Input
Amino acid sequence: MPYFIKLSLESQWLWAISRFCLALLFLSSGLSKILAVETGFLEMQAAGLEPAWLFNYASALILLVGAYCILFERHMWFGTLILSVFLALTIVIVHHFWNMTGIQANIAFYFALEHISVIGGLLALTIASHFRQQLRNLGVVA
Output
């Protein structure tokens, strides 16, 4: 492996960028549920979730807490866990392609696949965080 690549993979700046890229998805979604409340309520109602205000604000809280944990690397395991459960529940509640037909089923299927891929990214981030912490404890990584 080229030395520059090795240094980059061990760097704090690339680690911060990777966390930011993954957290941005959840941060933007959580903020939109707070800043565009009516849209959030309509989204919850369209999914059949009532009371819409409760599900909207609960979703916002989960998304923002999870994003915070990732961005600031505080209780990363907890943040990625709640976001992974949130995404899995979203597949079952909203993107239940197995109960749909036609183009609607295809769209829901691809959303479900995207959610599963993001869950994989969250798991990889948690694993990387764990090993980075172990290396930090050994004094190998700053």
Notes: The longest helix spans residues 102-138.
